[in-house]
Amino acid sequence: MPRRSFLAALGTGAGALLTARAAGASDAPSAAGRLDRIGLELYAVRKAMKENPEKTLAAIRAIGYTDVELLWSFKNFDRSPQQVKATLKAEGLTATSAHIAPETLLSEWSESLRTAKLLGHQYLVMPSLPSETKRSLDAWKIWADRFNAAGEEARRAGIWLALHNEPDHQRKVEGEFPLDVFLKRTEPKFVRFQLDVGNMLMGGGDPMDFLNRHKDRIGSFHLKNVVADRTKDTELGAGTFDLRAFLAAVPELAKKPCFVEQEGAADELASAKTNLEYLRGLSW
Fold first, then answer.
1. CA 13 to chain centre
2. Nearest to 163 by CA among 142, 177, 183, 145
3. What's the pLDDT at 1?
4. In this predicted model, what pLDDT tens digit does every residue of 185-213 receive, in sequence order?
5. CA distances (Å), 55 to each of 12, 52, 75, 243, in order?
6. Which position has the higher pLDDT, 22 or 228?
7. Which residues pair with 123 in a beta bridge?
8. Is 201 within 8 Å of 207 (Cβ atoms)?
9. Which of 27, 147, 158, 222 could be bridged to 196 by S-S, CB 3.0 to 4.6 A?
10. pLDDT, tens digit, for every residue of 152-164?
């Protein structure tokens, strides 16, 4: 997802849980599996959400999605926590996660955690960091320390705090990959990571390699695919990345929320439907 607006809004959030049922050991890729729950990141349908959030959430459920990941960083499209909770309940959608602005960690964090509990979140995820992290590893370390402190409080509330990757996170800062620095400095018992497969590909990275190196830290996923030159995303079944092999390699996938996110679709809801049908047809 591109850099979100850094408005620290205390909207509601709901997430999307994409689970897989496996027939093998829980700590290894399954011999056979399929996706049982499929979630949608609402950035994928942001234009429709801006026009009519309630109508769009109803359409998402009618398409067949069971979960959504909401955008606190978008002020939840000007809906209050109570309004979003009521709509989710009416449509039968589950709210597992929300994306938040960086400033949310710095102001009224305890109140944000109470809102997250109200909405049934398991995760609060920061999709990007302020611009100083593009130039300074010290800035990354400062934010890692903030994540540790905020994540410890979040765990006491039964919530996980996580960072999500952008394409530019694959560029070295002062000779090092910033995500590696961040993950090394943060405490696994307090902080998790949301791996956006498409963003990593567009940045020049290898999601499978990252999964193999950091599988114990990754708690949720954004599922997207990319065109051959990795300049943009496309429908999941039309891209060049082998999502089937990737999902089969995720340990205990059933416990890890996953969200479909195609950012550049010409028809947001039509592509959301196409992507759902593709994932429903996957097995391994």
1. 12
2. 183
3. 53
4. 999 999 999 999 999 999 999 999 999 99
5. 17, 5, 17, 30
6. 228
7. 97, 160
8. yes
9. 222
10. 999 999 999 999 9
Under 8 Å between Cβ of 228 and 191: no
Question: Contact, 138 vs 131, CB < 8 A?
Answer: no
Please give the single-letter amino acid code of residue 232: K
Burial-class residue 27 by CB neighbours within 10 Å (0-12, 13-18, 19+): exposed
Q: How far is CA 69 from the centre of its chain?
A: 7
Are 112 and 104 within 8 A, CB to CB?
A: yes
pLDDT of 77 over the 50 cut: yes
Of 20 and 136, which is predicted with more confidence?
136
Q: What is the mean pLDDT of residues 96-107?
A: 96
35 to 1, 58, 138, 188, 205: CA distances (angstroms): 23, 22, 40, 27, 25
pLDDT value for 96? 95
Predicted confidence (pLDDT) per residue in 233-259, tens digit = 999 999 999 999 999 999 999 999 999
Task: Give CA separation, 120 vs 7, 39, 66, 136, 199, in Å.
Answer: 22, 15, 14, 36, 27
> 126-153 burial by CB neighbour count: b if 16+ within 10 A, else e?
bbbbeeebeeebebbbebbebbbebbee
Distance CA(201)–CA(10), nearest Å, equals 31
Per the CB < 8 A criterion, the answer to whether 56 and 49 are in contact is yes
Distance CA 46, CA 140 (A): 29
Task: Say how far apart CA 24 and CA 179 lie, in whole Å.
Answer: 31
- DSSP 8-state class, residue 213: H
